[in-house]
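Hey, can you fold this?
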Amino acid sequence: MNSTAESRNSKKRIENSNRPTEGKGRRGTDTSVFFRNFFLALVASLALLFVSQAEAGAKEPPKPKYTAEQIKKKKEVLLQILKYGTTKERAGALRELEDFPKEEAGELYDLVGVILSKDPDWSMRIYALRICGTLELTNFEDKIVGLLKNDQQEISKEAVYVTKKLKFKSAIPTLTELLKAQDFTKNSNYTIALIDTLAEFPEATDAFQVLESRFQEKFNDPELRAQTALYFGKIKNGSVESLLISTFKDDKEPITIRAYSVNALGKMKSKDAIQPMTELLTKIRNLKSKTDVQDYQALKIHIITALVSLGDKDIIEELYSLARDDDAVVRLRAIKHLAETEDPAVLEILEYKAQRDPSEKVKRAAQNALNQLKKKISPDFVPPAAEKSREPSGIKRYNTRRPSSSKEESPARTDAGSQSQSPSSSDKKPDAAPQGGSGESEDLEDQ
């Protein structure tokens, strides 16, 4: 028994001797944890401080592009060039105004006004008109509107483009007068420009009556009648609904006119057009001849687009199907019309096509359609700006050739996709869209 008691007492002594050691171990562990947490907190604080300083640095206002001295010298050079330079140099100097600080450009803008008013070089007047449109120099409204009646049609046409972009309501009487004087039996870029510009002014009732009358005259040029149909879609005057419905139902009318009439009715939200559109679409679907199917494809796409805009969301699947077609031309047509539906649901397929489509042309069309739709959904949306090219000398490219007469090549417009256009060429579309955006006829081109 004594040995048993001694054994128990020995175990207790051993346990009691171990307890202080265990306490010391815990205190040591707690101390190491404390220092580790303190170190981590310190590192986190330093990281946050670094990030906040980086963000503060990023928010600092950008440095001015030019110093005051550089602006002064550049202004002196541009003034000299605009007064005494060659046509090429002066055109380049006008382009330089795009990046020149507006608050310092008073004298330079005055020279733009002088060029508009009395420069003997008619091509320089065109360059001056363009910079007025680019910089929105509305203080030259009287001069620009006055150039609408210039004897040189290229100057007048450029003034029409600028009038459209800057929306000069004071130009309505002159534009209407010029429209009345046009021969609608002959296709003309100038007439198309007038129609497209007048579409910006719904209050131009006299012009509307002229175009309504010309549209009904079937002997007039088909292209001008088609452009007039697009005009009706922009103006959204319900008085021509019946006229447009009867036009797209008429098998004897050209496909383009029928298609653009459908497009106009879709934009006008014409409920009366839904049934005849649906009936015509059924007929087109039942076509057996491959030639007929191909010929009517443009009209079919316009009908589908119009019906979607009029509330039929199920039919949009047909546009998706066309956008997936192996034929790049078919995909291109479908892409251009997806944005016309104004349905946010099509953003996903447009984004895919803009990035992944095998055709570069379809990619560009998808990106344009995407920008167009985003702008409609959110008016504050700003599309990515195209990079501006420069001459090696630092002077921007505008035009390197000076037309010496109305029979020579006119100054090439610098909008995206523009081409040179001879003043006497009246059988082609405008060499580029009016400033401020591409013309609707280009967006809807299906031929």
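Oh, and this one too while you're at it.
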Amino acid sequence: MAFGKHQYICLGRSKIMTTTVTNAINAATATATSAKSTSKNTLGKDSFMKMMIAQLQNQDPLNPMDGTAFVAQLAQFSSLEQLQNLNDVMSTLPTYLGSFSNAQMANLIGSEATAAGNVITVSGSSTKITYQLPSDIQSGTVKIYNSNGALVDSVKIGSQKTGLQSTIWNSGSQSPGNYTYEVSAVDRSGAEVTVNKMISGQITGVSFKDGKSYLTINGQQVAFSDVATINKTTI
């Protein structure tokens, strides 16, 4: 009789647990179904929930799932949901970073910059011509051409050190507009030095195209990757 009574108590507990689990299953199923209908990104969570529900439905009533194991599975579900939420955030991160980068680029307007290029803009009596020297030079010549490619002037330069250098061209007799230039130079031994031509001026605009950033310097659009220096103007 004692054994029968003990068996009845166990069955009674199983009935109570079964009822509780059934209610939990119904609630979880409704939640999972609602979540699935609102977002395709919850497929992983739905699959996990369905597997856990199936496990509960098919468990032995006389030997139900251990409470600790059930809590562990719920913790796994929570971790899965957090990982999927993190994945959603990471997928949008490039967009946020791109927007942040664009905003930062706009702050460069008004700064002075130098970049690769050989276009100079004449707007007054003197024009600065900037270039990069890979080594010291003994002497050199800067030749300036108009928009038709005709040589309009030349400027002699003396000894200069390695690095970013410049010379001033007296351009007062020339019409305003864009010109191009070439630089030839030699070192102390008379060997030719290859000079990197640069443009220098104020950044007046920023634009974005095909995922790349461009700065407007002296009316010329220059890729940001070609910029050598930027001097932020402070007031």
